[in-house]
Write a structure and sequence with these properties.
Length: 138
């Protein structure tokens, strides 16, 4: 089997296509959540904390003096971006939880619904016809 044919067979499987679709939708959802956090939630939190931008929060570790005499932090430990990433994660995890909860509820409702009785087999149909013919002869 040629490598191209084998790859085509692999790539066209349902599982691979489902995974690809999930990755694309997940990336788009991640952008939506990032925009929600960056543009809506964090400005509100910044407003409540006297205009502080969380993304700029950092802890200066040491100082150094530039040739022009200004003192600047040598290393910044940017914990604000970390806090923002945690908020992103919490929102994504919560939405995924809600989606799975709805899916589980739908599965339970489907399982609780009575299944239609199975169609009679060919043998049962034939026996029914024979019975009906015998009744008709009497």
């Amino acid at each position: 089997m040629s490598m191209v044919k084998e790859f085509k067979e692999f790539a066209m499987r349902g599982n691979v296509m489902d995974l690809a679709i999930g990755v694309v939708i997940g990336a788009a959802f991640g952008k939506i959540v990032a925009a929600l956090v960056d543009r809506i939630i964090m400005p509100i939190i910044g407003f409540l904390t006297s205009g502080q931008n969380f993304n700029e929060l950092a802890f200066a570790m040491g100082e150094k003096t530039n040739p022009d005499g200004t003192v600047v932090p040598a290393v910044l430990l940017g914990y604000g971006a970390f806090i923002q990433s945690i908020i992103d994660f919490i929102i994504v995890a919560f939405v995924i939880f809600l989606v799975i909860k709805v899916m589980n509820r739908l599965k339970r409702a489907e399982a609780a619904a009575p299944a239609a009785p199975p169609a009679p087999s060919n043998e049962e149909k034939l026996l029914t016809e024979i019975r009906d013919l015998l009744k008709a002869q009497k």
